[in-house]
Amino acid sequence: MTFDKGSLILVDYTAKVKGSEDVFDTTIEEDAKKYSIHEPNVKYQPKLVSIGEVSYPVLKGLDEALAKTSVGDKLTVEVSPDKGFGERDTGKVRMIPTRKLGEDAEKVSVGDTIEVDNKRGIIRFIGSGRVQIDYNHRYAGKTILYEVNVIKSLDSPNDKIDGILKNRFPVEDTKVSFDLKDKEVSVNIPEEILRADGLQIMKHFIQLDIFKFVSTLEKVSFVETHVNKQVQEKKPEITKTKETITETKKTTPEQKTN
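Now predict its structure.
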């Protein structure tokens, strides 16, 4: 069974440049460590993909291949430049005076990614008071190979909401929770991000996605729970009671006479 446009699925993948050992992206933490691309602040988990949609996109070539797969499929997908990061455009390679980099001129080296005139580019050459900057994507003109495992299709409202929240919230999966009843869902905001700068943006996209992929819902609520940690950390006062044991000594008739 293949996937229709708009289907939400979970996939694991590892991507590399064809003809080289340049592995540059993965959803699997073990692979990230194996290929020395592990980043401590990255949340490694199966990627949420919306087939043929822009909500959770992947490269066009990978999207087209995933649409023809089924849950449980493991395959290698080859993505050509025209359906990947684009063809290389020599017109996007520019030479600029080194002085234009200002204080960064002494810090940069070939291969670094920098931003000049609000555009990000890669330094290809430094010398003779000039710097060559390539504004093409790092993998423009490259064919990409994806090793893919199609893990799950999110079909029920519960699965779709769970997948959306785990994708949008930058916390451990175990800290994501919600309550779905009839046509309303209450989303619990994880305590770790209650003061996050981007929380309002997260909430905005979460409600958009939930309404888009679970169209039967009429209401999305966000629940924020704040705990008084002073009370929580205060240890209960223990009252010790002294137990008094009274022993009754028995007397014999002889003792009573005396």
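The chain has six helices and twelve strands.
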